[in-house]
Design a protein that fits this description.
The protein is of the alpha/beta class. Helix content is 25%, strand content 36%. The strands form 2 sheets. Strands 2, 3, 4, 5, 6, 7, 8, 9 and 10 form a 9-stranded mixed β-sheet that branches. A 6-stranded mixed beta barrel has the order 1-14-11-13-12-15. Strand 12 and strand 13 form a beta hairpin.
Amino acid sequence: MDKEIIKTVISEVVGKITKEGKNKIMNSGYDIPIGVSNRHLHVSMEDLETLFGKGYELTVMKDLSQPGQYAANEVVTLIGPKGTKEKVRILGPVRKVTQVEVSLTDSFALGVPGVVKESGDIESTPGIVISGPKGVVKLDKGAIVAKRHIHMKLADAQKYGVSDKQTVAAEIDGPRKLIFDNVVVRVSEDFKLDFHIDTDEANAAAAANGTFAKLIK
């Protein structure tokens, strides 16, 4: 059989299996994509210039699941009282305020309190030192363990019967099946449906990017 015909047949079969698998997932109620967040930070323009030099601009490595968000090529070192974490990636675009997001495991290694907060809420959070190739930023606050959350558009919120800032539960199936409580719903037309958890949570549930969760009210 011609090699091109074989490749076409294989592609069609794989596509059919993938589609059937996705349909099975959707019909089971596990229809919310999971996004696993490794340690990272968002930076202000002022802090970006301190770290990388005057007039510096972030460069895109790859786009993320949320529209307009991307992983930058730029990385820094986080320095805490007990340890450091190197090659921590910056996510773009720049924000008004710098925020560092780590897991509880990271916070232990760094020696900073693991304060669970919604992204953007940095009041009463510990500071941390950020080292870049051109300078150092010393934050008085801004290091958080991000509260798990689900991004949704309004149509998604209507489908699931939930509203912005509502707290729900989400179930992840598999060999380490878990139900996560205290999941915050965040609704905006700028968002794409996504259940965000950190690496600690993902490891506990044996979950990975591309797997799915089920919303439980």
